[in-house]
Amino acid sequence: MIRHEETGFREVWYEETMADGLHVILFHKPLFTTTSCLLAAPYGSLDCREETADGTILNFPAGTAHFLEHKLFESDHGDVMADFSRLGANVNAYTSYEETVYYFTTPDPEIRKPLSLLLDFVQKFAVSEASVEKEKGIIQQERSMYLQDADSRLFLETMRSMYRSHPLREDIVGTESSIQAMTRSDLEQAYRLNYHPSRMNLILVTPCDPEAVMTMIRDNQARKTFSPPLSLKRAIEREPETVFRKRSETAMDLSDSRIMKGFRLNPDIADDRLRLETEWAIKMKMDAWFTPQHAAYQTWLDEGRITPYFSYDSEISRDQAMILFSDEGIDPDAFSEFVTQQLRACLKAELSEEALSEMKKRTLGAFLHLFDSPLDLAISVLHGEMNRVSLFEEFQLVESLCPERCQALTQNLDVSRSVLTILKPLRR
């Protein structure tokens, strides 16, 4: 067990890789009264097509990661959630594009039982064919709910416009046909490949004694056997240079129209730190330009260029890169022209030292709040592991940004590939 200390933050954490490859990170918070623990597999909805070391392509139905998350909560004797409740622990899980995460939170200083339960149910595949068939109806209902949610649908239709074959074209839960086609064999193969301990992270934020907790984990893993891991990587097909469709309109049961303007970027950045630095440079510039920090922001509202519902987001990751703007109840074409013009101006303009300082203070303030929330801290540590840039390295990266560096990273970004998505109210 390796002890780490970040003196500037007065944080202490421990790290150990178990004999079977399970990577454990434990943040010791002796003044906390709550423990949060998560166990994460690097298997999300983007991993429906994987490639082995010998070049073999493995295809899984869309939504396999999410379906698997549902089924692992079934044990040989019943519902795992009920088992956690009896222990006084709150348990849940989520599937994202990049990972599947199972977690619990408990105020009980005795965490051996819920920790063992978490490890045992995630590390055991006990799924019957009959239960798979039963689950299909539940997940179809969940999918229908997402399709009727305006925010989810707006994002989904934008992804369907941006990409021709990328897994982002489909919701995390899958499609109607992929859910219906799911088999126990699909789930078991995906599980055996992607849930090997050597691919997983166990992250704890706890007041409990670190050595005692690590001993629990060592003993738990020593009782189990796993087949040798298989080398895997995500195999996303290369997209054409152009977007799939430039404009789409969908009628929904809405009181007012919803609009999203999306820009598909293609920075193609192999270095993890540089990719994260680029993402933060874009965020800093946009936070200074598309908020009341900008002198013209109130004028944009007064003139109806945007409404109080205006929002924006950006993401630069290994497999997708985009900038998104959304609003409600205004002319779609005028909005499209406005945000395109403003985004180009934003990326080209130099960020002032004063504006950047203000954005950094807000960002770093939010960062510091993470250390007061056990679950938020655990999730942020996980994201650092997934990004291969630790939480503290990211903090230093943001802190070191300067106007010249932001300018160098953003001024030549190509925002020519764009789409416009419109959700229109149904005609009564």
Characterize the structure shown.
By secondary structure, the chain is α+β, with helices and mostly antiparallel strands. It has 15 helices and 17 strands. The protein has helices spanning 64-72, 80-86, 112-122, 129-148, 150-162, 176-181, 184-194, 210-222, 272-289, 297-302, 332-348, 353-369, 374-387, 391-400, 403-410, and strands at 2-6, 11-17, 23-28, 35-41, 49-52, 57-59, 74-75, 78-79, 90-95, 100-106, 201-206, 232-234, 247-252, 258-264, 311-316, 321-328, 418-425. It has a seven-stranded mixed sheet with strand order 1-2-3-11-4-10-9, sandwiched between helices. A hairpin with a 4-residue loop joins β15 and β16 (321-328). α1 (64-72) packs across α7 and α9 packs across α12 (353-369). The longest helix has 20 residues, at 129-148. The radius of gyration is 23 Å and the shape is globular. The N and C termini lie far apart (65 Å). The model has no long low-confidence stretch (mean pLDDT 95).
Helix content: 40-55%
Number of helices: 15
In whole angstroms, the N-to-C terminal distance is: 65 Å
Q: Overall 3D geometry?
A: globular
The percentage of residues in β strands lies in 15-25%
Task: Look at the structure and give the mean pLDDT.
Answer: 95
Biggest sheet character: 7 strands, mixed
Question: Cα-atom Rg, whole angstroms?
Answer: 23 Å
> Total strand count, please?
17
- Class derived from helix and strand content: alpha+beta
How would you write the strand order of the largest sheet?
1-2-3-11-4-10-9
Which parts are unreliable, with pLDDT below 50 for 5 consecutive residues or more?
Answer: none
